[in-house]
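Extended Data, panel c. Modelled sequence:
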Amino acid sequence: MTLQSSSPPAPGGARLLRGVLAPVAAIALAGAAQAQAVDHPLNQGEVEIRRTAHGVPHIRALDREGLGFGAGYAYAQDNICLMADQIVTLSGERALTFGAEGQTTVSFRPIPNVEADVFFRSIFDMDALRQAFAEVDPRYADMVRGYVAGYNRYLSDTGLAALPAPCRGAAWVRPITVDDLLRLNDEKMIQASAGAWLSGIVAAVPPGGAAQVALQAPEPAQYAGLGSNGWAFGKAFTTQGRGLVLANPHFPWATTNRFYQIHLTLPGELDVMGVTMAGLPGVSIGFNKDVAWTHTVSTDRHFSLFQLDLKPGDPMTYLVDGAPQPIEAVTVEVPVKGETEPRRRTVYRTAYGPIVAAPASGFTWDTAHAYALRDANRGGLRSSEAWMRFGVARSVEEIHQTLVETLGMPWVNTIAADRHGRALYADVTATPNLTDAHMQTCAAEAPAAANWRAARLFVLDGARAACDWPASPETPVAGLMPGSAMPALFRDDFVANSNDSYWLTNPAAPLTGYPRVIGEEAVPQNLRTRSGLLEIAAWRERRDGQPGRPFDRKAVETILYGNKVLGADLVLDDLLAACGQAPRQTLETGVIDLAPACAVLARWDRRADADSVGTHLFLEFWTAAHKISDLYATPFDPQQPVTTPRGLSPAPEVRAAALTALAEAVRLTQARGLALAAPWGQVQVRPVGAERLAVHGADGDIGVLNAQRSVWSDKARAYLPVHGSSYVQVVEFEADGPKAEAVLSYGQSAHPDSPHYGDQTRLYAAEAWWPLPFTEAEIAADPALTVTRLSR
């Protein structure tokens, strides 16, 4: 292996140059010499990693395995500790490695180590995953094998003792295998299905067993803090008369669901840039010279539950059409650090899938019934094929064709535009093939059934074989809904989604008539959906009083970073009026004088900018107030879905509840030692070393497009972001190709000692963007350019 590098290489590279790799040649790159080095032809077996501003790697190779090698190597340089930790989790070795008392994050929720180990030691069907890998497109298989080799090469050449601080010298950092990447992929696919039910799967026991914990059914992914905004504009609405895409996924700032920027080039075949996640060697959100795309969490249910009729006197046998079927008991051994004997737990399986328990929601395993979960996303690699095909797509029609043919999107909508000026919204995902009629005919009967239907938890009668998911010859997986039957909209003006259903993708062309398993129609929309549609309409209508102002990159960036709080526009005037009439509120802790807080809110700019004063008060008020029954004066009107509901109800009980919510917000703010008039940028921060970087944006529930969900930290005495605007990208197609500007709010590396841990947070805090170097000329001209050549 040889390595060549210009200037200081990327994280880990400096150590490599000190003698681990030999021979080593340094190439001085400047001016014309820089461009010449970039254009130097690759030899077979070589991989080139060019890093530009913020450490973004541009990988070039002559084959797919080389691309995967470069991607795995680069990711390991920046995030080996993060990925190695996840490998421990998915191997079911957290309790052995870190002890039984710790916890990890699974499907965006904190989970005790032992529970996580039980789940991951039982959920993966490795035979099925290996078979799927044997049948996947060979080009993708080559990238996976290359990724494994690249990651392992970095680990081998660097050595445990020279790894970044979070895992330096740690024996749990080990070489990875293809099996590890298959588990990584499968875990990401089931995050909105089996992963979300992890605790219910682990807790399930037959009647007479150990007491079941009082679990509730998990919230849908879009209500568990996940979300996103995705907008695509067509030629009728853009300055260039071509496509324009906003990608604004709201994803975690920690764990392997962090995005990672990357650019992959296989000369003459592939040239795609965007972001991926740990263990995924392709590009999940991004663009090429012809198309740009993004994703938002969809409203589809990617699973269903089956109510099992148990054989009388035998809770380990269920009946289907009268025939007995066994419930399989699988004993899982979990080794634990410091304990001589492994802990043993049992999980239970059926032909439908694992048994789940959530007694607080009515899913109880008793002598009459049990409940099993069938998952639409387990055991497949279809997403890998879909994203690989996205990378070479030439139009939104090809994007849609890929979605329909692969059903590869696990739990996200797709929003795209192309250089021809067409925009696409598609909710084509791995969804059970359940029509409303089928669900009505096969609905399980139980006391909690009405609650299940209201929550769109679809529970079918597992005692009848005819109630299983109907097969369709049009789908690659039995029981999934055909992509051709799922919502899609092509437009020349725009499409937009902020995690509501397909219904109001474009208010001028509502989508209707789809099964409820996909989403709901004619229901109130979340405040981000409404804010986005209002802002798009407002931009179009303001040009010297004339309609028709077009969109370009700057327009979209201005709207997103406007940080307007729609919730305040809806109720604050009425709240302030009520405050003037009853400025003193009595809580259990004492009397709260609302006058100072109301004075702050009266002066507030109703935004979540760093210098906004009053944002934290309204955030805490709204956390309680939005749950008040009959909150609004003007109720929801499906004929005016963007502007209703609105206004604070004049009903005395509503006004009283609203003032109580405000009083609680004041009490909480004071208890935390915060000034009522503290600027938002002083109380929502990201610590980077000794710095406290101001983070603008706020919880999407208050109606901020640039959503940031934060948790209060007594130690930091601040709100610390946990998920929200992560990778923000605006791509505009111009005559000479795509022009993209972006920011990765938390930076490329999860290692605090990396220069790319907080560099883009500073950029984000300044409400700034940086142009992505996509063409060879743009890469060569980047002042931060370094070049590393690896020989496989």
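Residues 1-38 have pLDDT under 50 and may be disordered. This feature is highlighted in the accompanying rendering.
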